[in-house]
Amino acid sequence: MQKFLLPALFAVGVFGTAPAASAQKMNSTKMATNAPGYALQPQLSTLGWEGKAVTHGHNGTMNFSAGELLVKGNAVVGGTVIVDMKTMKATDIKDAETQGKFIGHMSGDDFFGAEKFPTSTFKIVSVAPIKGAAKEADNATITGDMTIKGVTQRLSFPAKVGVKDGMAAATGKVTIDRTKFGLKYGSKSFFDSLGDKAINDNFDLTFNVIAKKG
Description:
The protein is mainly beta and 214 residues long. It contains two helices and nine strands; from the N terminus they run H-E-E-E-E-H-E-E-E-E-E. The protein is globular. It holds the Pfam family YceI. This is YceI family protein. InterPro entries: Lipid/polyisoprenoid-bd_YceI, TTHA0802/YceI-like_sf.
């Protein structure tokens, strides 16, 4: 709980009392040109994941290793984040041996191939405001290129973004279809007769990115 509490408090401070204002005039790659880069703070940022199968599910964390948010005025207009795929943990699995087997499988070639592809990246290409967003709601749509296991796909998802007092933040949730990145193991979309051994194609990432002006 403590791991997620501190980043959450930082995000609240960055979003302040008017998050929608920080979402105004955010669009196009043009605005990101020459925009200052705020360095991602790995120790303050969090990334959670959740995947499900027919009979069960697991959830856990991964760590950001580096990145930046590009800021123009009081708006996030671009950026790139890098995830260390070798930091994956399943926080719901308490037994060390079971944890090791599970992470070993997820890190292997059936899934993320962490030895060959030790990082995944997301590059923001646009941040568009959501008009009329409520104070505590997502205030922008982020569009960018996600690269997992060497495969790049474009994704769009809602998020809450803000810039205040030399800090920038982006927080939200994105659902990813793993099969679009070549992760087809256990997918009933590609294999018949899996029964209750089938694993859902979609998994969720919940992110809280905190970046600081250099």
